[in-house]
Give the backbone structure.
Amino acid sequence: MTIPRTLFDPAGCGLPSEADIASLASAWFPEFLKPLDSGGGKLSPDAASGIYAPQVLSKDPAGKPGYPEGQGPFPGPRYGSLSADASGGRYVGARSLAAIRGDFPILAEKVHGHDLVWLDNAATTQRPKAVIQRLTCFYERENSNVHRGAHELAARATDALEAARNKVARFIGAPSPDNIVFVRGTTEGINLTAQAFVKPFLKPGDEIILTMLEHHANIVPWQIIAEETGARIRVAPIDPSGQIILSEYEKLFNRHTRFVALTQVSNALGTITPAADMVRIAHAQGLRVLIDGAQAVSHLPVNVAALDADWYVFSGHKIFGPTGIGVLYGKREVLEAARPYQGGGNMIADVTFERTLYQGPPAKFEAGTGNIADAVGLGAALDYVDAIGMEHIAAWEQELVAYGMKALAGVAGLRLVGTASHKAGVLSFVLDRCHNEDVGRFLNTKGIAVRAGHHCAQPVLRFFGLEGTVRPSLAFYNTFEEIDKLVQALQELTDRRK
Ligand code: PMP
């Protein structure tokens, strides 16, 4: 029997709706609709034959129907060690915080005899079981190169990759999957934009506007092309809370300005910038804008259309997806105007030794074999957060930030760095008479993971007269109780030093 491709992927590993399954099942496998064993009607592939067979459908506690047992955004078994009590019986949207923590196997780790307290989410987030299983499933049943090879696995892998591209487009409000270029991460997305779109039109004396808040990944690529072309960098200043001074930003624009690149959320301070206003101001001057969304996507609902971003970039690993995969969104016209970033297979329409014709975007920017499996894993991560709801995640994190800022402010000798009223995810501080690295090492002995150092954002730390901070950073699986543990450990450290 020939199996229709759509039944293999994404249905095979993941995430069809109950209605999809029912209609596909009745169309292709009427004989399987009769209840077997436990009475299910879900199709899943039989390992030996490759033919889909019925399987039991589970009802997720959050009320999302339709995922096979052990698959979908909230697969079992649950690994988390945190009881409902320890998570305060709280909910993020319809899902309990205890269940959410159970979705992330690593949160049950012990470190130096303590429960792991993962407060290094700005460096990388942890992965839910749904992502880990999706990767396993890809390698076990779909692995192939894509966009070529007239065989079943090539079709499955291609379907899985393009389904992930669709999910990304939907997740960030892009008009089409053709606006989504898969890259290695935020860093590569920014370098691509600088080299392929901005550099070709720069000339000596031109200016690129950045902000004081930028990560090195949104400074160095612009410096490289500025050095190569004779352009220069202008920097929008911030106030003492760590917020952009919009009126000063506005003053930077002049007839030499050619491009603007800005972060939506600062990785060192957590400041949420007025990105939409900043884009509007740049657009009023006829200029294009890139938004670095690396620290925004896992904390705020992001909509590139509402932001009116020309380019938007983020990394999979900052939003519970794999490392080595990221997303560059571009409006159609900028993707078409940009030249290829790298040349090679997959991105061409026709090659002779005299000339090459390129594919349109996004293929034009995806030379060579991409990170197929991790793109698929990223799609699973977005399904996972979507099922909880970014608006619920943002609301819970706002409570965590407010709680954390207040609790840390009570530690003697602690100075908070980054106190903007609009902030997300980051609780940077320095402690009197303590080296940041020593604080980080001490917290590690208590199982508490934070980052201590310059966080690849030296300019903004130097604005505050610092070479580094201690940076606890949050995700929606963190709890008030974990913040309490952090504060208790800091109090113990300061007491010892009296
Ligand atoms: N921009 C910001 C704001 C970041 O926080 C980071 C990662 N810390 C990056 C860019 C670079 O991301 P990646 O290393 O995943 O390319």
Remarks:
- Residues 1-12, 14-70, 76-85 have pLDDT under 50 and may be disordered.
- Residues 122, 185-187, 215, 217-218, 263, 267, 292, 294-295, 315, 456 surround 4'-deoxy-4'-aminopyridoxal-5'-phosphate (CB under 6 Å).
